[in-house]
Specification:
alpha+beta, 3-stranded antiparallel β-sheet
Length: about 140
């Protein structure tokens, strides 16, 4: 008899690439406990039932960082399977409107320039977001 291997859980996540007036991008570091602890990421979270991606991103950023943002155009959608989890990341460009970002649900936050992102350790799925950002930066000088 063969053993049935169930697929890993699937999370659909809205992700924000938040820029400020200086052209910097906001990243946050995951808390050390839990999956992918200590790695840096672009903030966001799980889409709730009945919520659009844009609504999810606004809500999550307000809950996690205590700021208001404007959700802009779609950057990329990534489907990535880790050993323990499958994620679909729907990533949007966002603009910081008001509030001072606070690390409410993460260890640390930092504004960085696009060329500084290589200095930070990101989960595998986020590498494609960085590549898409670089591509979009080159096509919009």
């Amino acid at each position: 008899m063969s053993e049935t291997i169930s697929p890993p859980p699937h999370k659909i996540i809205g992700v924000a690439v938040i820029s400020n007036d200086q052209g910097q991008i906001l990243i946050d570091r995951r808390r050390p406990e839990g999956a992918m602890g200590g790695l840096w990421e672009f903030p966001g979270g799980k889409i709730e039932k009945g919520e659009t991606v844009e609504e999810c991103i606004k809500r999550e950023i307000n809950e996690e960082l205590g700021i208001l943002i404007e959700v802009g155009k779609h950057l990329i959608t990534i489907d990535h399977t880790y050993t323990h989890l499958r994620v679909t990341l729907t990533v949007h460009h966002c603009r910081h409107l008001t509030g001072i970002p606070q690390p409410l649900e993460c260890d640390e936050i930092r504004w960085v320039n696009l060329d500084e992102l290589d200095r930070f350790a990101f989960p595998q799925a986020n590498i494609q977001i960085i590549a898409a950002l670089r591509e979009s930066d080159r096509s919009h000088p």
